[in-house]
Amino acid sequence: MSSSFDDCLRPYGTILKTLSPGIYRAALPNGKAVVAHLSRELAENPPEIPDGATVLLEISPFDLDRARIAKVE
Q1: What is the rounded distance in angstroms from the CA atom of residue 2 to the CA atom of residue 47?
Q2: Per the confidence metrics, is the pTM higher than 0.85?
Q3: Domains (range + CATH), the chain
Q4: Kindly report the CA angle at 73 between 37 and 4, in degrees rounded to 5?
Q5: Tell me: the pLDDT tens digits for 2-45?
Q6: Which of 17, 23, 12 is nearest to 54 (CA)?
């Protein structure tokens, strides 16, 4: 049996803009912009994520406009 994390898409993206603390606009490799929030693990000790930073995103196939930031490169 697979979990929801097994079914998500995991592209790398680029942070375009900080919208509010913990919420960012990120660009996918194809140029599409998504709203991304920090994963629970990252939100416990939020890192500084500058514009232009590369991040690993997790995207549900059911909502392709939102993403979770799983890792900051």
Answers
A1: 30
A2: yes
A3: 12-72 (2.40.50.140)
A4: 45
A5: 445 578 999 999 999 999 999 999 999 999 999 999 999 999 99
A6: 12
